[in-house]
Structure of DUF262 domain-containing protein:
Amino acid sequence: MEENKYTGEIFNFHKLLNKYQIEIPIIQRDYAQGRKDKKEIRENFLNALFNSVKNSEPIKLDFIYGSVVNNHFQPLDGQQRLTTLFLLHWYAATKENKLLQDDVRIKLKRFSYETRISSREFCYDLVNKSIFISSQEDSISRKIIDSNWFFLSWKNDPTIDGMLRTIDSIHKVFFQVEDLWLKLTSNLIEFYFVELENMGLTDDLYIKMNARGKLLTSFENFKAGFQKRIQDEGWEVKTNLENTFGVKIDNDWTDFFWDHFRTNNSVDNALIRFIATIAMIMQSVERSQSTELRLELINTLQEEPSLVRPINFSKQGFDQLVKYFNIYNEYVILHNYEFMSFPFPMWRHTSKGSILSMNVLEDNTYSALQRQSSTYTQKVLFFAQAQYFIKNNFNEEKYYDWMRVIRNIISRGDIEKDGSRPDIIRSPAAFDGVINLINELSEGSNDIYYYLANSTGFKSQFSREQIYEEVEKARLIQYNHNYKNIIFQAEDNDLLRGKISFIFYCINYNYSLINFDEDLFVNITEVINRYFSKESDLNNKIRRAIMTIEVEGKFDFYTYWWSYWHVGNATKRRLFDKFRELEYFINHEFYRKYFKKLVLELIHTTPDKIIENFTPNSSFPNWKKKLIKDSSILDNLASTNLIAIPEDESCCYLLKSSRPREIEGNIKIE
């Protein structure tokens, strides 16, 4: 005869209190459902409870399990739900004056927190002393805090803080519900209950817990809701069972993520990040919503990928999601996965592993707030890569050409004269614009240079200047395939970062293909790669050499930066403090003239020779001549790269800091 197996019981909160005292043990975390950042989880749970009592529809609240010690139930899983249910029962009893009844008050005091003394005392006083609820406009948490029994130090207890926030949420939802206590103590809201001692700590127990009662992850919740949406919308009525979303997500796709993106024996975070990225991309591709709603959703999913919902996908979006899952799974099988790195620099967008890894696994090192979300730019790179895979048979050279063009577009920055360089794609609007552009360009991704060279224009207005440059480079490459390598060498310079319009300017290129000066282009590229490839290349020899360059009769390249030093009654100037300032400099309509002359001279000489051969005219300020000719001044005396020049240019001061408050300590050069 088969032995009867313990399968648990079905309780409501009221019955559980009848049978046991509920004690949240010390090992449990604080009450997290009441946190500010858990607003959606909290409100979704309360709304589910509200719909149950309002419509008299029974609801089962997953599995609650734990140990019973001396008739005290200590939950191992279910703490958050039990705490919210306790607060809801307290609210009903308070609103309907049930706490005046000894049996109700005694029953609710059977719920307690052991995580902190303050939490335990708060729960006790909340029931034993309580407050009066008169209207929906009342701030319940404020009434509690203002009560003479509430210790202000309790506000520092995260569990109490969360409880107060949840009580306010309960008040907003449930104030209008009549006979709330009666409905809560009925069998409308129930949960599965299991004592660990009756099950035995076996693998079977944990399988059952995971299957029936454990809180679902964001991915599991999404998957369940998405499969329902797929079924309700009839999106797979003609799909073979083995190719349906439900089967693929439980097998091939999860196996792929498990092999490559597993963290702590889970791939749920990686999967939800992947799905949220597709949802963001498809908002910009489909453009079916208003701009405001589209950008709002993009921003929401960028900040918190776990907020992605089935409603965020249309049929087209669903089809694309399936394509993206399939294409990466297939490419990994057909190719070595690591080949997806690039033979050219990606600069700050370089991933630790691959573009996909960057999006689904790696922390966002550029944001303290969005660690679990890749940057907008990384998502754009992912979209560009996926579009190539979906639209083309793989060709290594063509693939790299396509991704190089994309790199050039996304590597642009909003350059400031002080050297700061925030990414051009750092907002929902910029993300929306560049996705739209790449979607348009992807029609020619199989041979991007042919496509660009023969284009008649593009609908997208994003990054027009860089697109014009990419078209011109494509025309040159189509005209003479040998130009491809020299253009690539120029693009890969860290100062230029894909934008080579400065070199076009230096060779006086007038966009006539037959007049392209290949030799001069190569020479200038070599100079830039030799002297301006990294931060350490910016040295005092370069600063002194460029001071010898004259434009329109003036030797004052440093006027690109201005501030005023009131103490010295002088104008502050900057001698290239940061490498990235050069990028601002060479793209400025006027100041790039200085750099052009310097670069052209460096084709045939060196910074040392430029300094040595410089002969100033009689009107040239003596202090400036000293800075140029005497290397020890900048090398040994300048603690910053800032100088201050009086209006009569009789001298300059080597500033000891960016804002010196006195003359003393700033070395005067006459």
The longest helix spans residues 315-334.
